[in-house]
Design a protein that fits this description.
This protein has 121 residues and is α/β, with parallel strands linked by helices. Helix content is 44%, strand content 15%. It has a 3-stranded parallel sheet.
């Protein structure tokens, strides 16, 4: 089962928030459309806008564009942003440096704010 198939199963659960790995997804519109078809009113989709495995820092403009891309498919009131897979809190995880993690979070916050200003929300 692909990632989209897994999401469809997850949307059947009685939960209010979903955290979707989307930044590293090669076909983001396909995943967003699948989510649009299956999420329920009142549920919030937190979309991954930074790839924590890739050491390259996303720019705030890239984050802004990913948020705006998502709002063309999912209503803005049902969206939030997050990082793909989250940053591990464990000291033995050396795949992402602390500086990189903080830079990615900073870009996420700035880019989300930029999109929010454009969307006037």
């Amino acid at each position: 089962m692909g990632y989209t198939g897994l999401l469809l199963s997850l949307f059947r659960l009685n939960v209010g928030r979903f955290y979707i790995q989307l930044s590293s997804e090669p076909d983001r519109p396909r995943v967003l459309k699948a989510a649009q078809e299956h999420y329920k009113p009142g549920q919030v989709l937190f979309i991954g806008v930074t790839d924590r495995i890739n050491p390259r820092w996303e720019t705030p403009e890239e984050i802004r564009d990913r948020v705006l891309e998502a709002t063309r498919i999912i209503p803005v009131e049902s969206l939030g942003t997050t990082d793909d897979c989250g940053f591990s809190p464990f000291a033995d995880d050396t795949s992402t440096t602390r500086d990189t993690a903080f830079a990615k979070v900073k870009s996420r916050v700035e880019g989300t704010l930029m999109a929010s200003n454009i969307l006037k929300v």
